Each structure stands twice: as C-alpha cells, then as structure tokens.
What we know:
By secondary structure, the chain is α/β, with parallel strands linked by helices. The chain has one domain (4-222, 267-306): TIM Barrel (Alpha-Beta Barrel), CATH 3.20.20.100. The protein is 39% helix and 11% strand. The protein is built from ten helices and ten strands. It has an eight-stranded parallel barrel. A two-stranded antiparallel ribbon has the order 1-2. Helix 1 links the parallel strand 3 and strand 4. Helix 5 (162-174) packs parallel to helix 6 (197-206), helix 7 (246-262) runs antiparallel to helix 10 (306-315) and helix 8 (266-275) crosses helix 9 (290-301). The protein is globular, with a radius of gyration of 19 Å. It starts with a strand and ends with a helix. The mean pLDDT is 96.
Amino acid sequence: MNKTLLGNTDINLVPLVFGGNVFGWTIDEKTSFEILDAFVDAGFNAIDTADVYSAWAPGNQGGESETILGNWFKARPGMREKVSLFTKVGSEMGSPDKKGLSKRWIMQAVEDSLRRLQTDYIDLYFSHWPDENTPYEETLSAYETLMQQGKIRAIGASNLNAKQLYESLKQARSHKLPTYQVLQPEYNLYDRDGFNRDLQTLCLKENIGVVTYFSLASGFLSGKYRSHQDLGQSQRGQGIEKYLNAKGFRILNALDDIAEAQNAQPAHVALAWLIAQQSVTAPIVSATKREHVEGFVKAMEIELSDQEISVLTEAGL
C-alpha cells in the first residue's frame, strides 16, 4: 500500500493507524495478538496507544494496552522495527501526582511506558491533554531531552485548539525548542467542531501531520447503531446515544447510499471520506475482529468522487 510522510516527521506510514484503546478492554491479549498480526499482514504499519489505556474498564488501572503491545513485540521478534509506535502522556495514572505535562512527570512516565512496551524508543510521543499548570517551554524542554537521549523520535499533541497550538509553536521557536509535529484531534463525519477551520488552516500552514481519533464516532458511523435498542450490542453503546438524532440519521443515509454504489460498508466509506480530506494524514481506527481489518483495506481502496465527498460533507452540517 502507498505510504505518506506524517507532517514534518520522518515517519512514513500507510494512511490508517490502529487504535490500541481496545487492548485490555474490549479484547483480551490473545485476540489483540491476532488482530495486530492481521493488521501488519495486511500492509499497515502504525499503532497508536496511550499510557492510560484502558483505565476506564473495571479492574484496570491504566497501562494495559501498552503492556499487551509490549508482550506482542516480545513474541514477534523484529516486529518493533516494522511499525511506527505512538503513545501518550498526561492523563492521570492512579494519583494526582501522576498526570500532566511537567518535566518531572514526563521523565518518569516515559520510562514507565518504555518498560510496558518492552522497547527503548517511541516513534511519536503525544501530550494527551492540555496542561494549564505547566508552561509549554517546560513540556517541550522535557521532550527535547528525550529526543536527545533517543527515547522518543517525534512529538505531537492531542486535543489542542487553534489558540493553544499556535501558542505552543510560538513558545517553541522563542526558546529554540522542538515544535509539535503532529496533532491528534477528534474528527469524523459527525464531530467536526474540535478540528475547526482555524485549526485545520494552522496545521496545513505549518505542515503538521493530523491523525484523527474517534474516526468512526465510537462505531456509530459503522451503521451498526440505528435505534436505542441497538445500543446494547457493545460496551461502547451508551456513548453512541448522542448520535441518534436528525443529523446522525442524515449521515447514515448518505453513507448507506454511497456504500451501496461503492459495494462497500458504511464504515469503509466514512474512513475513505477522512482519508480524502486534505488536512488529514490518517484516521485512527480500532478493530475487535479480523474482518474489521479486512474492512480497513477496503477503505483504503475506495476512491470517492468529488460529488460523493460533497454529499457526505453536507450531510453532517
């Protein structure tokens, strides 16, 4: 499959990233290994996770996703060099002193992540959330140290708005520190406000790579959930209720029509729409079954016409 550079990093990826939030949550280690094997066998080469995944699941405390990935790397000699690995820091890890973007916590958290991942480097390290209590200079200085040590190779930020991203770039240049090279916003056919026009424009201007999360709106854009009765099909069902409205049904109707014309599924079309966006480098998407990975391949193969892209875009306005 064709690859593309992720912003101004040297990460060359197939423009679809696996979302590791499901590891240790909706799929166990054995199934995770099977899905990861299928993902790489299909030609994909980038995986996204975070230190906090999946602390929200009963009995978990965070670190489960990274641990499963680390065990997979150990069980598959040579695999670590075949994939680009993304993880994040900043979410609370069990106590108030284990969160945020202070240099103290970043330097500890990265060692914890490296240990769980059973690797000595992270390809792309994200600030998971803005930290109003820590200056950008302090955070970026920590990342500079880690880059000099070879423990991380590129840096990104998740959930920044245009003002915050602009200020981070300004402070980085003022203090001659590394700039964020990648942004990870919530963005899909339904949810577009978080990656608004100003933020898109700034990313394009600065050649900042963009990898989107909740690319299928927590599964709503798969077309699997069309009534309140459908919400019980998955552990993620209750988070999808907010999409069951006129706007959501307009989008599903448009997806249905184009999916039929493309001999595809709604999820494939929704991902193809993201891949076609100039401001998006790659969507992040999860899988819990091998056939989902086969669907990723289908999404990569779809070529939407300008008219189809327009119909989908307008359905979500």
